Amino acid sequence: MITKTMDLHELHKNLKELISQATSGTEIIFTEGKTPVARLVPIGQRVAGLHSGLIMTSNDFDEPLTDDFWIGEKA
What we know:
The protein has two helices and three strands. By secondary structure, the chain is of the alpha+beta class.
């Protein structure tokens, strides 16, 4: 990913162009003087079910926790 730095005072002049660059994959770092304060990056595509089956939840996930858990005693 390409990174570009720009002072915040220049933002209003170039916003449309900066958004175009970000959607093309350029990361824009905004600064005040030499201090980075924000960045503009493209929003990634999210795909439902992409990692299906890789994360599992135990069958007792919704069950109340025991009193031993809450008072800090180990079973």
